[in-house]
Amino acid sequence: MQRGNTLEQLPASADAQHRVVDSIRKALASIILGKNEQISLALSCLLARGHLLIEDLPGLGKTMLAHALARTLGLSFRRIQFTSDMLPADIIGVSVFRQNSGEFEFQPGPIFSELILADEVNRATPKAQSALLEAMEEYQVSVDGETRPLPEPFFVVATQNPGDQIGTFPLPESQLDRFLMRLEIGYPDEASERELITGDDRRLLLDDLEPVTGPQMLLELQKSVRAQHVSEPLIDYVQALVRSTRESADIEVGLSPRGAQALVAAARAYAFVENHSGVYPDDIQAVFPTVAGHRLKPAGSTRFRSPTELCQHVLDSVAIP
Q1: Cα–Cα distance between 52 and 42 in angstroms, integer?
Q2: What fold characterizes domain 7-221?
Q3: 154: exposed, middle or buried (C-beta count within 10 Å: 0-12, 13-18, 19+)?
Q4: Phi, psi angles (nearest 5°) of residue 319
Q5: CA quadruple 29, 35, 37, 39: dihedral sign
Q6: What digits encode the pLDDT tens for the residues 223-245?
Q7: Considering the entire predicted model, what is its pTM?
Q8: What is the pLDDT of residue 164?
Q9: At the topology level of CATH, where does 228-317 sit?
Q10: How many other β-carbons are positioned within 10 Å of the β-carbon of residue 161?
């Protein structure tokens, strides 16, 4: 992919970094119409060095968002279409015997790219799904007893159809936990949908989308995110939210310590994207449904019908500091 004129040559000051973030959001918003909050959350997930799971009905822009992220950020990109007959080697790669040299040569699979789109990940069997686990957690894969590092940055965007659709295999809890956020895009508003119907094909606009930055600046942005200040009262708030998920009669399994860490990491990134001087309670509340929704196991007797409603119940139950 042509990298274009990146901001990697500019001084990496705070102002320069926030200008590039604003440019990224503007570029993404030109492709994904009327979804500014979802764009901010997806970008926050990447800047927090997390992986993103997008769950929604077909045709709402899940794949388009992944393509737009790769284009805008100047990242190498591969799409893996998950199917029921997929094998782990189709993802990781395979060693091929070369007769002329008498040796095995490793042929890398599509996982060796900076941004991976795992499309319809829940249409593959658990065996194929598990091939992503080591890559997502360790940023490396093991083949024939040899560990091979993945590119840096490395980011997985997985899409899945709702579990009640035909031919889907639910993701196990261990794999769901590897995703920092689970996001729903939802239907567009009326004005955005009218522009989609009457305007240019978004795929053609995507082809003309120029990179705003490149991998090196992205790594610097991720480093700045980790430096975002989180005050002690905000840590108290996070712990109170986590404790509420564990004690609520509506929740059978609450957030783990890793879930609490994910919440703080996502809030730091969201505060950075929104150009806040530190992490505010609003930042924690903005990311909480996307971070906690797929990690909570609702009790059988709960009256809350969706993860979003359950997360909002937790937020409403805990006082803001």
Answers
A1: 7
A2: Rossmann fold (3.40.50)
A3: buried
A4: -70, 140
A5: negative
A6: 999 999 999 999 999 999 999 99
A7: 0.89
A8: 53
A9: Helicase, Ruva Protein; domain 3 (1.10.8)
A10: 18
